[in-house]
Hints:
Layout: E1 2-11, E2 14-17, E3 20-24, E4 29-33, H1 40-48, E5 55-59, E6 64-67, H2 79-84, H3 92-101, H4 117-130, E7 135-139, H5 147-164, E8 167-172, H6 175-181, E9 184-189, E10 194-197, H7 200-206
Parallel strand pairs: 4-8, 4-9, 6-7, 7-8
Antiparallel strand pairs: 1-2, 1-3, 1-5, 9-10
Helix pairs in contact: 3-4, 4-5
This protein binds adenosine-5'-diphosphate and magnesium ion.
Adenosine-5'-diphosphate (ADP) binds near residues 11, 36, 39, 40 and 41.
Keywords: ATP-binding, Nucleotide-binding, Transport
Protein name: NitT/TauT family transport system ATP-binding protein
Pfam families: ABC_tran
Amino acid sequence: MIAVEIHRKSFGQSQVLGQLGFTLGQGEAVAVLGPSGVGKSTLLRIVAGIDRQFEGHVDRPERMGMVFQEPTLLPWRTALQNLTLVHRELPEAAARVALEKVGIGDKAELFPGQLSLGQQRRLSLARAFAGRPQLLVMDEPFVSLDPETAEGMMQLTERLIAEVRPAVLLVTHAREEATRLTGRILHLQGSPAVLRAEGKDHLRSVSP
Ligand code: ADP
Ligand code: MG
């Protein structure tokens, strides 16, 4: 179970996040939707434990996988080493299977710079799932891809989620991605930003 409770998050004088919280059950997938600049990546970095400069508390599982907008690969290591150096307990044979699963099994000995952007994204997806994460956090993983590549990546992601069954936190500004990959949508909005569950507006408008 993942529990996020943030009281506030500021950069210097500027407060980005206000009071917000949510929980995620085992295998549950939630999307955080919001416009550019609202604080989505800031929230995700706090949940992932990358940013610890905030007021609040996060309970997260031990094994986590992350997929970012940029593939964030080690440029001087081969595709295979990008898996085995991050997941030190992962046998080489298992790493090769992980590369095959994302369709780049024949690229194991190539460096990230020798891969297309789409292949780099596949590699970062393989890396995120190779440790069999209990929580997968994704930050706009399909932006700036052509529609065909984005579709392929999304199908691959759906398949890997179905196989590994992590809890998923997907941060995006694209509604279609959110509804396709998750069962629950939260909106991040305002300044400082807070979360609103989808449909709440409607409920509020009909209550006295
Ligand atoms: P989103 O991911 O929703 O586009 P971000 O979380 O990246 O938004 O940014 C939210 C706000 O916080 C923006 O105004 C951004 O400029 C600011 N911000 C993000 N990271 C930093 C940082 N390291 N230092 C100062 N301001 C930051
Ligand atoms: Mg962002």
